[in-house]
Amino acid sequence: MRDFLNFTLTGIAVGFVYAAFALCLVLIFRATRIINFGQGAQAMFTTFIALDLIQRGWNYWVAFAAALVAGFIIGAVIERTIVRPVEQGPEINAVIVTLGVFVFFVALASILFGNTLQSFPSAVSRSGLTVGDTQLALRPLDLFNIFAVLLAMTGLLLLFRFTSLGLQMRASAFGQEVARLLGVRVGSMLTLGWALAGLFGSLAGLLVAGGELVFPGYMDFLVVFGFVAAVLGGLDSFPGAVVGGLIIGLTTTYMSAYRQPELVTLAVLVILLATLLLKPGGLFSSSVARKV
Hints:
Blueprint: H1 2-32, H2 39-55, H3 60-83, H4 91-113, E1 118-119, E2 130-131, E3 134-135, H5 140-162, H6 164-174, H7 176-181, H8 186-209, E4 213-214, H9 220-233, H10 238-258, H11 264-278
Antiparallel strand pairs: 1-4, 2-3
């Protein structure tokens, strides 16, 4: 029973990390109707910026904040210089461009920071919590990650549901011409959507890296599992991203603990296929396709 409890706690902690990345995918989809497959590489690059600043003697939290700002700026620059020239063409063009962004940042990080494993520090304890005589597989670092993800989800919900800015971003994503007629600065809203997605992607990268070894490809697994979590919860639902992340986190942890670890990726693939076949919009999707 104690082992099951610890596996569950581990799965929840891992699930919130997947949810962090799923949130930024949902954010950019709701703000621009585009899936950015370069998001993980952008997050990795800003994490290395934070690591480089820490190694130069900067305070951990100052470097943490600098990485978030870098993610915001990089997201805005990508939208303005790379995505905007192709956004009026077929939707597949923007997807292909984001794959190019992925390759670019992985290559750039390899050139600037190297391909060797590097230890990313953690400002929060990584020792397991103790309740009585029981050592739990839950660390203060995990609690920090959970709090950060819940805070991010709450902020995004408030932004999109209760602010004029959020309404303008949604309008720009769904009907640019109508939004322009209503006085919305569509270009600025799309840029802001990419910038915010870059910021939250950086947050996901930093949460994954805390106390772990990093290298230019360390975010690759998170891109896959985070994407499945976003699809499972619904690409237009922030709570769905968190729930999807928890489901994937618990599934991968239980599979690793009770079955062969090699089946983990297969289990995630089965979840993705089942979602696409049974509920393509995701568990928490709020949009309904109109049939004609």
